[in-house]
Design brief:
The chain folds into two domains: 118 residues, Enolase-like, N-terminal domain (Enolase-like, domain 1, 2-Layer Sandwich), CATH 3.30.390.10; 198 residues, TIM Barrel (Alpha-Beta Barrel). It is 37% helix and 23% strand. It starts with a strand and ends with a helix.
């Protein structure tokens, strides 16, 4: 199949800086793709890299798009190198859109299924780092979130443990809480967090569930995370360690049988991800890369198809941006 290919870069400012162990993030940059097949049918895709997480840079993605001809083929799309995982995801998603019957020709309206896809998925809401989480959770609760993720390893561990103590006694007992270290803990600090969570589980007075600690150690300390995963009751999820399909396969091969956090927008080829998940039946949590509705729709389809244990997906991030309908429609109309 042949497609006319167009692309357009974008920048979106966060309403407030997103703070993680990797630093502050103020502007989300990405690229919107449009494919038009020989019958005139449109397919939309999005490249939303996070280079510090393991994908290509936005510059590398733009260079790749610029060197492509105006007419591309399936062969070109399915031969994008593994060094460009966000490009693999964006182009394959657009190709699937053309061939799959989504409402590409209408594209997007305020009531479009693109903005409100009809998937029966539970969502996890992302809390701001630090004490701000103590004020933010209630707003998200009122919006229907029952699972929350809180960033740790952003401040001194003693301060965060104090805030954590307040947070777990403030959240409703029916809530679930995930702690995300973004690889920022030492081995000793990871033990302290896991021991603290295990002690809380042993406390019958606390009904709130600590679902898991996400990526406690840096990527290069995979063996340490394997050891920790067998030493405590509190589960560990790996995230940065499995940013791409190659890493996902390597960690599984090295014995990881815990939770895998998969960011579809940067993991690589959707077709190869499907094959891997069907083959190995891994325990997954699908998570956002702060993409627009275009990549989100493709990611949510994968989550609906491949989630095994009904875990809440990490796409509760709308409160970090202004409403996107008009902005996104304008962007795509100008392609």
């Amino acid at each position: 199949m042949r497609y006319q290919f167009k692309f357009r870069p974008y920048q979106r400012r966060f309403l407030r800086s997103l703070t993680t162990n990797h630093g502050k993030w103020d502007i989300r940059e990405g690229i919107i793709l449009r494919l038009t097949d020989e019958s005139g049918k449109l397919g939309w895709g999005e490249i939303a890299p996070i280079s510090w997480f393991g994908s290509e840079t936005i510059e590398q993605a733009l260079d790749f798009c610029r060197q492509l001809p105006e007419e591309i083929t399936d062969e070109i799309i399915f031969s994008i190198p593994d060094e460009l995982p966000a490009c693999q995801f964006g182009f394959e998603s657009a190709q699937e859109w053309v061939s799959g019957g989504d409402e590409g020709d209408k594209f997007i309206t305020p009531n479009s299924s693109l903005l409100n896809p009809n998937f029966s998925l539970l969502y996890s809401g992302l809390l701001p780092a630090g004490e701000a989480a103590l004020n933010q959770w209630e707003t998200l609760w009122q919006k229907g979130y029952r699972t929350f993720k809180w960033k740790i390893s952003v401040d001194a561990i003693a301060n965060e443990l104090k805030i954590f103590e307040s947070l777990i006694h403030t959240l409703p007992s029916s809530a679930k809480l995930r702690l995300d270290a973004n690889g920022g803990l030492t081995y000793e600090e990871a033990n302290l967090w896991l021991r603290t969570c295990d002690n809380l589980k042993a406390n019958a007075k606390l009904a709130l569930e600590i679902e898991f600690i996400e990526q406690p150690l840096p990527v290069e300390q995979f063996q340490g995370m394997l050891e920790l995963s067998t030493s405590y009751e509190t589960a560990i999820a790996i995230d940065e360690s499995v940013a791409t399909l190659g890493q996902l396969a390597a960690c599984h091969q090295q014995g990881w049988r815990g939770i895998f956090v998969i960011k579809p927008g940067i993991v690589g080829s959707p077709s190869r991800l499907r094959k891997f998940c069907h083959q190995h039946q891994i325990d997954t949590v699908f998570s956002s890369v702060f993409e627009t509705a275009i990549a989100r729709l493709a990611a949510l389809k994968l989550a609906a198809e491949l989630s095994q244990n009904n875990r809440a997906i990490g796409f509760g991030i709308d409160h970090f941006f202004e409403q996107e309908e008009t902005w996104l429609q304008s962007l795509c109309n100008n392609l």
